[in-house]
Amino acid sequence: MPASPSLLIVPARFKTGKLYTQIATTSAGVVLASSGDFNVTRATTATRFNSAGLIESVASGVPRLDYYTSGGTAGCPALLVEPSGTNLAFPSEGFSTWALAVSASVSGVSSPDGMNTATTFIASTTTDRVRRLVTLTSGTTYTYSLFGKFGALSSGFTMQMFEENATTYGSGVCQAFNLNEGTLGASGSVGAGFTLQSVGMENYGDGWYRCRMTVLMSYTPPALARIGFRIGTQISGGRPVSVVSGSVSAWGAQLETGSIATSYIPTTTASATRNAEVISLSGAVSGCIGQTEGTIYVEVVNTLQTSYSEGYVARLFADANNEVWIRKEEGGNTYTVRWRANSQNTTFLNVAVPNGVSKIAFAYKSGDTALYLNGSQVGVTNTDVRSFDIGPNSVAIGSTSTGAYFNDRIRAAALYTTRLTDPELAALTTL
Length: 431
What we know:
Elements: E1 7-9, E2 14-15, E3 18-19, E4 23-24, E5 38-41, E6 46-49, E7 55-58, E8 65-68, E9 74-81, E10 85-87, E11 99-101, E12 104-109, E13 118-122, E14 129-133, E15 141-150, E16 156-165, E17 168-178, E18 183-190, E19 194-205, E20 208-217, E21 225-231, E22 234-236, E23 239-241, E24 247-257, E25 272-274, E26 278-282, E27 293-302, E28 311-319, E29 322-329, E30 334-341, E31 344-352, E32 356-365, E33 369-373, E34 376-382, E35 394-397, E36 408-416, H1 422-429
Antiparallel strand pairs: 1-4, 1-36, 2-3, 3-5, 5-26, 6-7, 8-9, 9-36, 10-25, 11-14, 12-13, 13-24, 14-21, 15-20, 15-24, 16-17, 16-21, 17-18, 19-20, 22-23, 26-35, 27-32, 27-36, 28-29, 28-35, 29-30, 30-31, 32-33, 33-34
């Protein structure tokens, strides 16, 4: 980094309710010590991808240092921040109360959490299937996700959201996932009321992929609304067909409202909720924030379904008229940066989110602001003359107490009490 930041957080050390900062000093060089550490609140347990490459649960209030990389191996830790989520599918493992129409199922299979809670399903006919009753409501967007692993003869599985009619279904959508190759297969649709909005899959290692489909409902099925899957990737007439003698392993079913698949929420006999986490710092930290000029820097690892997550990456706040923030927008998959001083806005819009790592720095000073992304200036320098009525006195990363939660991984964040020069901003953000 070009100079010593006044505040630096590279997620590494933590305890329940705390995320320790590496540097926290005032503009006068006064070391803040423990008063510079971030407070972390989350009232429920939550899961992460740990340094051993396994999904594990952490206690309430514990920051989630997540080691996931797109290749399904453990990499450098980053802070996982998410909105609240509820898994409506239960049980999410074992499938004991799901409707099974298969020739055989084998429990006790090694699963992505390092335990033996996955199940292998074997088909004997083209109509073999695994499914569960759910409630689907018109006007609601749902995301259905499931971990799958390639088995014999079949190339994967085909996930479905549908209204059942005997052994087939009258309305619904499906998406095939090639688990042997880690690629998307074909999709299918019949009837009306179900619109497939997006699909994707992420490699979790050891042959496991987390597969997901997002569906918008324009119809409320009166009965027999279901989620499920068929063994194999063949689709005929808009519906999936199982592969005779094929097999596939499954684990970690999740159905949630919204257009993103959040981190895995285990369920047993009922739905379960993971609360959002709020990670913030206030009080003496005002001395770490440039009050007349400054720079805010964040490093984001975009490993999730980037087009469908939104929220504050980092925010400096005094009140609604005096704040600085970097935010990710959902609709256009862009970063938005705002410097709001004395009720006046300076906003840089439509900075496209790149794949992989984003290094973002926003420098603000009356009459001289600039935005850099991955080594290049992407925001027009602002010449408006303005200053804060009230200087920012709190910092939040990944969320705010009022919501707008980010849904991805933050690898670093830093503040400077000066407006860094353009060459310094370019060097700071170069990959």
